[in-house]
Amino acid sequence: MNEARNRPPDLIQRPASLLVPTWTKTGIALLYNEETGNTCDIRLKLTKEVLTIQKQDVVRVSGGESHSNRRTVVLRRQAIGGFGLSIKGGAEHKVPVVISKIFKDQIADQADALFVGDAMLQVNGINVQNATHEEVVQLLRSAGDEVSITVQFLREAPSFLKLPLGSPGRSSDQSSRASSPLFDSGLHLNGNSNHYAPCSPLSCLSPSTNEVRYEKHWLDALALPLLLARVSRYRTGNHKLRSHCLESISTNINDLTLENIKNSNKYSSPEAQIVHMGWVYENLLGKDSAQLHSPKFLVLKGSTLCVFGRPPVGTSDWGQAESSHSLCEVLFKAHKLWVAEDCWTQAKLFLGQQEAELRDSRALCFSVLLGHGHVRNYSVELGSDLVLWEKAFQTAICMEVQRVGSKTYMCSSQGKVCVLPSTLSLGLPARTVRRRW
Fold this sequence. Notes:
This protein is 14% helix and 36% strand. By secondary structure, the chain is mostly beta strands. The protein starts with 24 loop residues before the first strand and ends with a strand.
């Protein structure tokens, strides 16, 4: 075994193919609120160190500053095309009335102040926040040639409204969404929506360049630091993984972890160097024998395997591990073999009567056999993570062999737990270890 004694550990590097560029990445996602049952379109902005969640809102871009997206817009009805908008929702559905369509080149579109997703608050000064769909329709139809509408952009909307998702501006879709359980009021408000004539400048109340103008923008709602963070690719309520989803986020987290290890090892003694650390899931059995997966943070530090409920950030946190185990008294086993990318096969590994404990419904697992015979089972979400943990345990145990010189280690032979005495022969050339059976 050719290793230098008491030298800092080699950090477990990620394959170069998994590294991501440092530039910013963005993508659209759908955020679901389990408490309200509402959904909203969000944008994720990923940098090396931060994941920012952005939500759409309507902001004033000219005509002064405003801290609210509440707007009052005056529309003049056209002889052909009406107001050029459609609405859905209402108090009978326990949701506000919202603008579901804005028809291109019609008066509502030219006003530059109304957007798909705007909730109606007032019509001609009458509060309609608790009005039914039909009541709002009747107010708009009987409003005469001009109508004053006060609206506010609704970030979250129930999924059954089926508002267009991911649209940065007003919708130009002129077809009715027949699949929606809510009636689209476009035909009743605008007459025959299949024939439109653009309004003349004199009949429109669209703002001039010096007047107030609004636009939809993505605004930062929440910033999540990625250092020591955890992201799950599992779908809620089951053990199915989302394919390749969130892998860039996971890669950035692991890269930051490696940097953190390097910085910590600069100020640590050779006997207290961190070899590897990161999030895993501990696989437990509940009262009904159902599997429970509890997130744990494992650290291979010096001669010890430390298990934390949350990552150690400050100096005092290192003394608050849930459990600590000497590396001389543990045995690591991976229960899935990496054949190729996205191609895994079950390894036929047995450990005597402990076989039942090693089974797990998740794909990428490893177990740690402790000195008193107890087995702790863990799982990870990426094949690259399983490889990193396997290499990390090998490196940490090898370094501990060099530090100790002579020690008895646990192993298994034909399904039975055995011991392996090991000694460091000082008479052999440097950096060589001789094991004695």
